[in-house]
């Protein structure tokens, strides 16, 4: 039973019951209340102890105002009570002002007696009129009774009361359900989530099930839970929706919270725990506990599964995922932000009263979308605030939001922050102000050095919906980041020098110029792009003895090359006083070396890209906590420093240090070093032999070191090396120990041409002895997944057979070489997915390929044209062997091809039945086109270089080939499916037309029988936009299941038939890639009118 004191806790009701207690409390009204509650209708009934005095309480007023319906039980003595009459007046006021639905029940009274105040009602008013204090109210009461008697309701006379009660409850339920449906229709973007939650609840099952809905504040958890509750509550014996329990708990405490819970669910305030559990055990209940932030709430209210009757469902909403896991909730559902379309609709609904913005406000609305980032709370609050305001006011609000968050949004979001412990707050603010978008493992190293225990802290932030991880990058919602910024600002609104973190240009400038920084400052982020001049003095940092993070960067470093650089000045004898510094990032550090007193023992990351450093330091520096050093593109750096006292360094990046010619032997002392990049160090010729002692080194990059000639003899001792890239180096000989690198996964020698035959040390010369295979260093690399020998001057004198021993190989790039044929044993590479053969102009044929192959790039392989029938046949053989490949759908919902190939050619083969010029092709499908032998679609496109391209000597381009399939039924219903393809890099000029072939298995969960037409729309996007689509086509791929599966079988024994539906007797003619036809082929077509069956 709902308690009147719950108005602040339970903010709204479905029904308010008004009745005369002495007439019907323990009879008709009691049974009606029970029936309403059983149907899940949230009903307010007052406590008999409240009926005191002449004026109804504020609690009852609030309950009436916040009810959707009022049901008035007009019994014989109803008019005797001033209390009841005042309730009636208030109810009719809410009917007029709030649109409340009001229905009278004439319980054993004549409606005309109520209308005209006769009989018992007349006697009651005669008594009221005898009292002078009632004289002003009597006319109002009479008018109220007259009004209510004219409303639609029920007359209990000559009615079977149980049936009447069921009729009333059913009517109200149906009305509420109708309202709920209309309400749900206005909840933009929520319907799919409602259906997902309902499917997770699976109310048909008799088990007891708990479902947790979690997500950040303002994401719509309560709205979702309420919508689901409204739709399914009628299926349960008893229902309870406890909204905002955390707030109520803070105000009232656990005893009161438990009392309210039991009152709503059981109509019983008896706090005998054992008895109430036994009562719950016998009932099928629906419970929603909203906004839980304390595990004790669940322990007290929800307890265990066996507290509740069969088929019960409990829904819990929270910002903290861990609370759900700890309590043993069966299913977790994370609420995501709205997509762009739904976000714009929701915002427009509040801002314009429509589901789309007014024309003049489209751009401003998009700015609001960017700010809100799909958060429903922000969209509703900002939309409501901007309703009816001018464009100038919108622009003013946008400018204000850049500096100050909306107070309502801030308060809701900050609730999550306020529940964190002290260390978690520090971690959150560090991420919000400095590390948004940074690698998780890297940030954890920095935070660990600060004593913040990030393993548990970051997990806690993730579980509390404050941050999330994407591709191992720490991310947070834009508004949560701004919430963090505002918390820092509010700590000292007037003086930024006493804030914990500084990142806003004006604040940083103020502190640095006026030297107002204090020990409160823990982090500073300085954007040089916003400054014309800056001075660093010893006084600048003198009082910032707690500074942990210092970042000096340029936000426009990639965009504004003409702008004058910021003038950075250092005082003479500049010293770093910041002994607590853990993170130092300084873009374009202007000095030739670090200060002499640079002894930051706590420093973890020294990051100085594009610096003016010539020598980092002289002698030795004790930096035992340093793990990351990045001096990339420091073009004046000539040699590395002595690393002997930097014993914990894990990553060293010297990429682009074009003057670097000497690496200090102490590099070999870095026993924990796992990443070393010397890419494009053009003056570097060798490495010290001590490098071979780096037992933890996993990645070594020497690409672009054009003068680098020779690796140390003991290079093979790098037993943990997984990636070695030596592209465009002068290496001509590998050390004899090289085959010992058995953990190598990535190996690249792209552009290492050398004198012919350059790669005899890696790929052996052809032998006249064919009785036994010739082994090479490659045969030892059983873990190798990626191998690039692009542009390595490989010719006929070198055998490629050793490639067949690379059993783990997934990506092989042999582009821009001069060989004529690939080895036949390439078919043994059962994991090979990507094969690059671009610009292999002497290549004459493609061998049998492994069924794992997904992508083949054979652009500008011009010799393939002369025998293209065999080459293209090889690709089709690969398609045959993919009979059992199921359709894959990636995380973006795109169909993933089983095979994608780009080869030299100018015409679509004739076996591709449906063809069209341009970028779209339509297919009218015959009857019975879809049967058990159908595998998928073959999609084909011919691309041509635009005029003038052939004359270009060189260019680098990026191809994105994409396709959308539009499938329609005979009644014009349609569906669309996007096909995913990998981007392809092309180097050099495109010689002529090329053909792109894609084989796409179709998902079996779709009823393809219903479709009668398919249209394919192709797009080719390149960075330089130098290609166009000449023609395109669709083919249907079928399988013949009754023949041999051997991959070495001749074509006419193939297990797959590519079968096309042609008009006319095209017979068994097979089309070459250039459009010519062959008479001996296993590719057939059937007359269009005939049913499709396997060809034997």
TrEMBL record:
Feature: compositional bias, Acidic residues: 1076-1090
Residue ranges of every copy of the TIR domain listed in the record: 11-176
SUPFAM superfamilies: L domain-like, P-loop containing nucleoside triphosphate hydrolases, Toll/Interleukin receptor TIR domain
Localisation: Cytoplasm; Nucleus
GO biological process entries: defense response to fungus; positive regulation of programmed cell death; signal transduction
EC annotation from Swiss-Prot or TrEMBL: 3.2.2.6
Keywords annotated in UniProt: Cytoplasm, Hydrolase, Leucine-rich repeat, NAD, Nucleus, Plant defense, Repeat
Main location: cytoplasm
Catalytic activity as recorded in UniProt: NAD(+) + H2O = ADP-D-ribose + nicotinamide + H(+)
Annotated segments matching region Disordered: 1064-1096
Single GO cellular component term: nucleus
GO molecular-function term, one example from the UniProt record: ADP binding
Pfam family, one: WHD_ROQ1
Similarity annotation: Belongs to the disease resistance TIR-NB-LRR family.
Matches recorded under PANTHER family: DISEASE RESISTANCE PROTEIN (TIR-NBS-LRR CLASS) FAMILY, LEUCINE-RICH REPEAT-CONTAINING PROTEIN
Protein name as it appears in the record: ADP-ribosyl cyclase/cyclic ADP-ribose hydrolase
Record organism: Vitis rotundifolia
Taxonomy of the source species: Eukaryota, Viridiplantae, Streptophyta, Embryophyta, Tracheophyta
